[in-house]
Amino acid sequence: MNLSHRMKTLTGGGSDGWDVFIKARKMIASGTPVTELTIGEHDIRTAAPVLQDMHKSAMGGHTGYAMVPGTDRLRDTVAKRTTDRTGVPTTRDNVLITPGGQSALFAAHAAVCDPGDTALYIDPYYATYPGTIRGVSAIPKAIQTRAEDAFQPRATDIAAHAADAKSVLVNTPNNPTGTVYSEATLNGIAQVCQDHDLWLISDEVYDTQVWEGDHISPRSLPGMADRTLVIGSMSKSHAMTGSRCGWVIGPEAVIAHLITFATHTTYGVPGFIQDASVFALDQGPEFEADIAAPFQRRRAIAHRVLAGQNTVGLIPAQGAMYLMLDIRATGLSGDDFANALLDQHHIAVMPGESFGQAAAGHIRVAMTIEDSAFEQALRTLMAFAEACATAT
User: Fold this and answer.
1) Do both 200 and 98 map to the same domain?
2) Whole-prediction pTM value?
């Protein structure tokens, strides 16, 4: 029996980018200690009051089928937060609650792409993006950015591939680079979308983790509210990665169709998870700032540790919980560097090549362990890089 072409080609016939991560987890399972700087998993975990509210809701009986679009309370809360943060009037009818941001990405592409349509995305990219696009039988097309531009995408590069495209996916603050797209960058992207009648899918799950500049939701730009689908999530902003609660925000007509889509796919999110999400969102910006604070602090540690040397280059980390490090001076690819670092020092990082060709010769470091351990891992990484550079 044969599987569908869609299922067999999700990764495009190559690696899905998770090889080093899986290797590290196998080492851990075998009893080898590994310092993991791979995935965006908070070391502080979900706050106890959020878990207590979740428990209260579950014990109170909110364990049956929840409304597929999301509870009115959560949709209203997400809508108000969006209105307050972006200035764009938003109601519950603009919001679909989904099982995490990844589900929201899939739903958004399913909404705007037919089989065979071209869907653009920015390279470097989160590792699931091309597979998500293939999952709806669309054709992924990467638009490469440049390290010398701090990985800010150029509107002209997007426009060069827009004629036959249906959508473009952007992510700011960006995973993996930490780049926060400037107003000029976003205005340029918005103009391309309007000139070529593209849908814009905006992944904004790191909107509370901005260290330099400002987060601008492209939905707030002139002429963009009716052609933008925004992806959000509780995972990064509230350290609720395992709770799997996200959303799509967009025009009412699109959300109405996505509710039908959710009825035939996910059938909603557990009610006690949604109640806990309302509780967490009601804690306000101060709570979100507390969740983000460790990453801003570790970013400062990285700047201090990497100062005064030329072997490892730090791409300006303006947001998110990651550092993008340029290790081309070592003479190694990101893949080779990450594998050797894991083998020799039991430190796991993600190769830049996991996120596309624009990040080749780089590595992504997640700032997700305790401060002193993070600093020691960075110093070991630096010493390893210097040894590699000397040997070339």
Assistant:
1) yes
2) 0.96
